Amino acid sequence: MIEHRLECAKIYLKDAFELYKKGSFNSSASRAYYASYQAMWAALGDPESQKIWKHLGIIKHFVRGYWYEPKYPKTGSGLLEEFRLPLRRLYSYRIKSDYDAEDVNQHNLMQLLENVERVVSIIEKKGGE
């Protein structure tokens, strides 16, 4: 795993919670998304065919779970399927806030922040094995 990216993810997540507490929900969504992005990159490592991970591609590969359990079947549901929709929703919140200048739903955002916290924790535990 790429330790620096995981450390960045933790800092971004801390920032996301602080922004949420201040009522800066759009900024919180953006930081939370990039916390998840950096954490997933730490788990997956660098992409094979490009310099950076594409946003929906990193979610797909992360949820697939081969980084967590290399023997997991390559077809069917991903090992970490429970995170697919929350991560995609967080990505759409980031698009809404950063590009469309629309307000995000603060109640759903807290649940998404908690999901990112779980993602970071899972990656951190797996890295320690």
Describe, in plain words, how this protein is organized in 3D.
With 129 residues, the protein is an all-alpha fold. Helix content is 67%, strand content 0%. It is built from five helices and no strands. α2 crosses α3, α2 (25-44) crosses α4 (84-98) and α3 (55-64) runs antiparallel to α4 (84-98). The longest helix has 22 residues, at 106-127. The relative contact order is 0.19.
Q: Level of helix content?
A: 55-70%
Number of helices: 5
CATH fold assignment: Four Helix Bundle (Hemerythrin (Met), subunit A)
Strand count, sense and barrel status of the largest sheet are:
none
* Coarse morphology: globular
Radius of gyration: 14 Å
CATH class: Mainly Alpha
Taking the alpha carbons of the first and last residues, their distance comes to 11 Å
Give the uncertain stretches in residue-range form.
none
Could you tell me the mean pLDDT?
94
Count of the domains: 1
- Tell me the CATH superfamily: Nucleotidyltransferases  domain 2
Query: What string gives the helices and strands in order?
Result: HHHHH
Instruction: Please tell me the CATH architecture by its name.
Output: Up-down Bundle
Total beta-strand segments = 0
Oligomer: single chain
Strand content: under 5%
Give the class from helix and strand content and strand pairing.
mainly alpha
